[in-house]
Protein: 3-hydroxy-3-isopropenylglutaryl CoA lyase
Amino acid sequence: MPSNTTPPVQRPIRSMLFVPADSDRKLEKSIELQADALVFDLEDSVLPARKTIARDMLKAFLPTYAGTGQPWIRVNDLESGELLNDLAAVISLAPTGIVLPKIRGPEDLDLVSHWLDMAECMAGIEQGHTRIIAVATETPDAVLRMADLIKIRCPRLLGLIWGAEDLSSAIGAGDPRTATGAWRQTYEFARTQALLAAHALGIQAIDTVYVDFRNPQGCEANCRDASYDGFTGKVAIHPSQVPVINEAFSPTPEQIAYAKRVVAAFEQGEGAISLDGKMLDIPHLKSARKVLNHLS
Structure:
């Protein structure tokens, strides 16, 4: 069994931004970025011939990283033949965690957790330190087996990301969006599966990218919809989207004030209360506490 050590609590991730690990210019610029999580990428943005170069560049850069965002590393997938090389190179740098792409089911999380146990032991890193955010909808297997994830215990697992592009490629389909920009049925199903699995596991549900980075109003509307549906954060495709995403996934002053009033009203010890002419019960209290927990 992999380590059962409970990892340290991490602050909620509202925004994630990927940074190619083989670009000196982008690595240096990452220090200025305001995303909650910066994901230094060893996978899709790095050509196969440059994987070793990217690992070496990241090993030189990350010890000097002084940005405000949590440092994460997107490693290569299990079938690539590169994942063990990635872990051997980067775990000693003590990143917050890894983004694990193209999972097929819970057995992938279990295996990688074992490998992280070994890598942390060899690097002298506290057992359980390295968290995992899994990209949960890039293979048909993963989408069809999403419910299996809730049957295992993986203390390292911090969140699930859903995305449509790799799944579209995997099944030989066309554009996952309709002409109006809505998700086609297959991808709406994958989105819902990932969202529900994340909440069943009590971890973060992270929405996929909004591709039109020149449309901040569209990005904001897309973020608001995702937040309303229950997603807790979103992947940015461009640095300009980060402030929009951070604001959309943060409670407003009005929401905070109302949540405090709800909690205060329930402190009278009753299971159902009346507030502003509406009857509230325990689910409303739980929602209010989630809003306030986001502040801490």
